[in-house]
């Protein structure tokens, strides 16, 4: 899980509380540091074609500018207190919307408009008569009360932040456990931290640095996954396998496996269902303990064992074969009727979605003296070929 993406924010929070007077926090290298860092990260994101981060960078920049313009005066001024109350609510809301809804490409007209909106909306709040609006809304007084003797955070903000925190935790743990959402969560945490450490020197600048570092880590993690992880099955792909094979121990084994009659399966059920099968196979292989699974390419997968105990290897491969064979694959989507009337007439006639079963063949080679990665894979491939010849749905060990 890419939790480490939150490290910059957690480190800043820890340092701020542990060593609030540390020289690091007394000054930034130069006043424009946050904007320079924002442009640098935007440059890296553009170089990597990760345009979706532009909207987030615009929002962080807009928030920073709004904080510089509106939150540098005493909190006793009603306009400042109102901005302090409303700005985090707006930014949190925008961040949640940007995480949940699809964002247009940043180099399209809607994308550019969104980048501008995310930058200027927080700044526009500085000029808006917020104190007047809040007064007209008849918000209960206790929401403006401060529960802590230090700092300025109000009960209203605490409620809002807590509700948002639950939403974020739901997003990162259930629907999307992707690095991008952890990065977005990290940026939000950085903004949250700003309101807690508002009275510290250069708080707004340090928050921008923490948010930018979070985005950089997210970018690095996303790029690493792009290079090493197969998008369809979520297994490490061939490049990762090659690295593993380079450092293979003397006692090891490699197994090649592929789906039986997969061409026929694709022709019968369509490529999309074929993809569904590969995804399922990926998740079954990923769950096997004591073995590293890779997508070799197409419908071929590779398993690498860091030992050469034949019985244990055979048992594990047999376990994989049986699990795949026993798994009932529901063909819900393709079984869906062409028109509504047909669908209605079928309903209630029982049966549920059609299920199919697939099988795999496996060939395994134990590493022998003089074997290199290439020869080992070749022998495993030959064993796979003999499993196919022997009737498929079985395990064969190379001689
Ligand atoms: N859906 C889907 N199909 C793929 C993918 N990669 C490769 N294939 C298909 O896998 C099939 C492989 O077919 P073959 O190599 O002839 O093997 P097979 O039909 O499985 O026959 P045997 O291996 O002898 O049992 C081809 O039809 C490819 O199009 C993929 O990512 N998705």
Automatic annotation (TrEMBL):
Pfam families for this protein: GGDEF (PF00990)
Catalytic activity field: 2 GTP = 3',3'-c-di-GMP + 2 diphosphate
Transmembrane helix recorded as keyword: yes
Domain of life of the native organism: Bacteria
Ranges where the GGDEF domain occurs: 250-399
Keyword hit for Plastid: no
Gene Ontology molecular-function annotations: diguanylate cyclase activity
PROSITE patterns (alphabetical): GGDEF
Enzyme Commission numbers on file: 2.7.7.65
Transmembrane segments: 33-48, 55-73, 79-101, 113-134, 154-172, 179-198, 204-224
Name under which the protein is recorded: diguanylate cyclase
Species of provenance: Saccharospirillum mangrovi
Classification lineage: Bacteria, Pseudomonadati, Pseudomonadota, Gammaproteobacteria, Oceanospirillales
């Amino acid at each position: 899980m890419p939790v480490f993406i939150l490290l910059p924010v957690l480190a800043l929070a820890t340092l701020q509380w542990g060593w609030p007077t540390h020289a690091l926090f007394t000054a930034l290298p130069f006043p424009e540091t946050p904007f320079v860092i924002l442009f640098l990260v935007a440059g890296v994101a553009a170089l990597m074609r990760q345009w979706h981060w532009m909207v987030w960078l615009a929002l962080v920049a807009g928030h920073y500018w709004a904080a510089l313009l509106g939150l540098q005066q005493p909190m006793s001024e009603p306009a400042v207190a109102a901005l302090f109350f409303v700005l985090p609510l707006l930014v949190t809301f925008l961040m949640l919307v940007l995480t949940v809804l699809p964002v247009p490409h940043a180099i399209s007209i809607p994308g550019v408009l969104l980048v501008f909106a995310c930058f200027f909306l927080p700044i526009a709040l500085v000029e808006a008569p917020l104190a007047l609006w809040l007064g007209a809304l008849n918000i209960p007084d206790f929401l403006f009360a401060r529960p802590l003797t230090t700092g300025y955070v109000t009960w209203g903000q605490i409620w809002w932040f807590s509700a948002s925190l639950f939403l974020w935790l739901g997003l990162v743990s259930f629907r999307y456990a992707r690095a991008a959402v952890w990065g977005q969560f990290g940026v939000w945490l950085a903004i949250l931290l700003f309101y807690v450490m508002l009275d510290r020197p250069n708080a707004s600048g340090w928050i921008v640095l923490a948010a930018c570092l979070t985005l950089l880590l997210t970018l690095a993690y996303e790029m690493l996954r792009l290079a090493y992880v197969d998008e369809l099955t979520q297994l490490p792909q061939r490049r990762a396998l090659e690295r593993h094979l380079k450092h293979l121990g003397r006692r090891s084994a490699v197994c090649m496996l592929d789906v039986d009659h997969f061409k026929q399966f694709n022709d019968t059920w369509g490529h999309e269902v074929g993809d569904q099968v590969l995804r399922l196979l990926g998740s079954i292989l990923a769950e096997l303990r004591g073995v590293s699974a890779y997508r070799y390419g197409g419908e071929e997968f590779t398993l690498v064992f860091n030992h050469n105990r034949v019985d244990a290897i055979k048992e594990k491969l047999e376990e994989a074969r049986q699990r795949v064979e026993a798994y009932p694959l529901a063909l819900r989507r393709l079984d869906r009727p062409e028109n509504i009337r047909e669908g209605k007439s079928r309903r209630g006639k029982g049966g549920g979605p059609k299920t199919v079963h697939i099988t795999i063949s496996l060939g395994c080679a134990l590493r022998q003296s003089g074997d290199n990665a290439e020869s080992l894979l070749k022998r495993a491939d030959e064993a796979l070929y003999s499993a196919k010849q022997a009737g498929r749905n079985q395990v064969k060990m190379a001689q």
